[in-house]
Amino acid sequence: MNDWEKSFLRDIIELDTNSDEKKNYVECAEIIKKYCEEAGLKVEIFDSFADGIPQPNVVASLDVGAKETILLCTHYDVVPAGDAEGWTRPPFELTDEGDKLYGRGVTDDKGNVVACVSAARELVKNGTSKVNLKILISPNEEIGGENGIDYLINGPPKIRGDFAIVVDSSPDYIGIGASGVIAGTITVHGKQGHAGYPFKFANPIHLSIPLLDYMLGYIDRRRKVVSEFPAPPSSPHQTLWGRFSMTMYQAGSKTNVIPGKAVISFDCRIIPEENPDDVVKDLEEYLKSALEETGVDATLAIKTKGHGWGTDTNNRFVQFFYEGVKAVVDPDMQLAAELGGNDGPFFDKVGIPTACYGTIADDSNFHGLDEWLDVKDFEKVKKALLRFAEMCE
Fold this sequence. Notes:
Layout: H1 3-13, H2 25-38, E1 42-47, E2 56-62, E3 69-75, E4 95-97, E5 100-102, H3 110-126, E6 132-138, H4 149-154, E7 163-166, E8 173-178, E9 180-189, E10 193-194, H5 204-223, E11 226-230, E12 239-241, E13 243-251, E14 257-258, E15 261-270, H6 276-294, E16 298-306, E17 309-310, H7 316-328, E18 334-338, H8 344-348, E19 354-356, E20 372-374, H9 375-391
Helix pairs in contact: 1-3, 3-9, 5-6, 7-9
């Protein structure tokens, strides 16, 4: 990793661009714009300005007069640092320890921002790209992408290309699909009152226990849903599978008050072949059975409902990218679908074939404390993007 790349990464890591507060977005976009222009790219800023908050999207282009255009998709927003005292290094400083670089967003996804721009910089310098490039660097990815990549694809910019690479993934395999997600809540209804008189009231915490136990069965039900797309290396199953997790439990405000409700949040991952509406209907039917069995009064609310996606592995660009990564990274590189979700559906819905690759290693503590980037993984991504642009014909 050269000094220019480290300087670029340091300048954007020092800005807290967490997706909860949405601060420093303008400043970060301006820094990215500066480095993109230094790399010889043409830069446009498209601001979705949602909810009265600036949310600039940076689009950096390399036009070599080719017939085909490749889109590289990254993001500069990050998840909050969380408990700063739990970090052993400052979250919003780039800590350089040789082969490892530390800081919030260093691998998810600011390291990938730098890898994309640096690869384009090399292509400009060498004049070797066989395709046009557009690097889409957005906010809002960590909370759904509506005002980021969705705005660039489906909003006024209406950006299009012949193939997209979501540079926000693992260096250990090439993603050719991803899970969809359905998230929501199950609210158990009780009757609020004084904890000294429990016989007068209906305690939703107590009532939820048999319901929670029944819902554990839905985990097994989802596990039996199997995709044709391969799962990532080291997964417990060979192909992608359905998953259901109860992730939060919220109830009560004081120790001497029986609450009036208990709210159970859940996350359901669906395979690319599934229709989210069908899965919601199945969940509704399962919950109905659970309520009949337990006698609990509860309601279901769906907060998020997103499709999974998958790309045909015989697509010529997928094959070009696959061969390129095998040549410069690992001859045994595998194709797999993501266990999580990403920005792929936005491209898939408008008919743009998509693959995923990036610096986000499983053990890099992304979204956690002491997030770090392996410099070797950075070089893998940069070299893979370079090789791909040079071999596409």
